[in-house]
Every structure is written in C-alpha cells, then in structure tokens.
Amino acid sequence: MAHQWVEAADYLANRCTNTDIEQSFMQPRDSSGAVILPGGFRVLVVARECDVADALTALRDSMTDRVIGIDLEWRPDQRRGFQNRVALMQLASSTCAVLIRTCCMDGLPPCLGAFLGDASIALVGFGWDTADEDKAQASFGIGRQDFGHFFDVQMIAASVTGQKHGLQHLSRMAGCRLPKPHRVTMSDWQHQTLSPAQIVYAALDALVTGQIFRCFRLLHADGNKEASLPG
Fold it and tell me: Higher pLDDT residue, 224 or 99?
C-alpha cells in the first residue's frame, strides 16, 4: 500500500499550487462521491451529520488492519483569549480517508464518538498532546482517554530514534516528502467549502501518520522493540 500515499504526497508537493490542476483534481469521483487521489486512495468529505454513519462504514470496509490515522484542523486562533473549535476531523485507513466537517454539525455525532471509542481500532495521532488534545476537549468534551486504543507516533518514533522529530522528517524517513504549505495549514478550515488543496492536505496528514506507524510496526516485527504495536 505504500505506493498509494507516496504518489498522493508527490501530487500535493508538485501540483497543488496550480489552480487549473486543483480544479481538475476535483473531477474524478467514484459512485459514492469520493474524491480519488493518485494511486486509488479515496477521500470522502462529510458535511452533514446524517451522512457520518455511512462514511464511517465505508472507512471500516476499507481497513486492511486495525490502524486508523487521526488528525484535527481548525481555523487559526488569531484573537488573544479566543480559541476556535475544531472544524475538521480526519480519519484514514491505508486506502481511504474520511474528512468530517464538524464545524457544520452540532457537536460530535454519537456514531463518531462510538467509532473513536471502539477498542478494536488503533487510533494513531501525531504530537497529539501539543494542541489536538486541548482542542478535542474544548470542542467535544472528549480526549485520548475516551479512545478505545490510542498511539502517538511521534512518541513511538522518539523511543526508537532517541529524538523527537516532526511529521515532515518522519515522512521522508518513510519514503516521501510531505510538504506543509503555509497557505493551506493556516487557511480557513471553516470555509463554506474546502478547497482541493485543503482536501489533499487534510487526507494526507491522517494517511501519512498511519503509514509511519505501520513502518515502525514492521521494525517491531523484526524483533527489536518491546512495545506492543497492533496489527
């Protein structure tokens, strides 16, 4: 599956600044309405609470292992003393990402809360305690203690390498340069519609997080690490 996220990340790195290509990127869809990234990686953008359950079912059906990458996005906090709520939750298997626009919903849909708390799923975040945990608590009243199983791949990487690395560095170690263009990372995630660049970036953030975890799981399978990493 590695070729899928490598090809998709290269697409983002090389083409997302070209408006014409961004617009053409939005054209290929499958029967469910999913955007198809290079390599066949599917992305479902969900803005209605009534569609969340079906999207999560599609995500479950796409799972080839227990691992689901998770990430959050929000509008940049620009006023002192005011924090924006989470606008987008990204969940990704190795073949599919679901981007849930929580800014369009009244709180956390119950089916999403149940998915996050499912003990059969290994949720994998990156640097979660840096900001995501506080945002999740403030926005939804939940955090990592409510997840069925949770792993922070940045902490796992630090235990393996002895150093704390960023997502870009670890993605290069795993075989691909993952750019974080400022115009996308600091964009308005509560905008009426997400841009193609936002969709690609958001999907890849969760996808790459899960794939880096899988790389470390392979290292563990070689018999050198004590930590138990789920399959």
Answer: 99
Handedness of CA 130, 83, 114, 1 (dihedral sign): negative
208 Cβ contact list (under 8 Å, min separation 6): 5, 9, 69, 167, 171, 174, 176, 178
Could you tell me if residue 115 is inside a domain? Answer: yes
pLDDT tens, 92-142?
999 999 999 999 999 999 999 999 999 999 999 999 998 999 999 999 999
Question: What is the C-alpha end-to-end distance of the chain, expressed in Å?
Answer: 15
What type of residue is 108? L
Q: Quick check: pTM over 0.85?
A: yes
Tell me if 141 is assigned to some domain. Answer: yes
Q: Domain residues for 134?
A: 2-220
